[in-house]
Design brief:
The chain is mainly alpha-helical. It is about 85% helix and about 0% strand. The chain has a domain of about 45 residues. Helix 1 packs antiparallel against helix 2.
């Protein structure tokens, strides 16, 4: 397997970050009734986690989400 270059890692991280930001924001807005700072913190943490996982795992990350999300 060929290791991804810097550009591919950036794209992977960016897509994962965007997905994590959206999912984190929706989850925090739906289940947590705290301040806007708490909502932003949860969304940012989810974005960093998803970005890092997408960068490290690539297509495995997205496939696992597809199987987990839609069973």
């Amino acid at each position: 397997m060929v290791k991804p270059d810097r550009t591919e890692k950036g794209i992977r991280f960016g897509c994962g970050f965007a997905f994590g930001l959206l999912v984190g924001f929706l989850a925090a807005a739906r289940y947590m009734y705290h301040s806007a700072g708490w909502l932003a913190t949860v969304a940012f943490a989810a974005a960093l986690l998803c970005g890092w996982l997408a960068m490290r795992r690539g297509d495995e990350f997205w496939e696992s989400l597809r199987h987990w999300w839609w069973f």
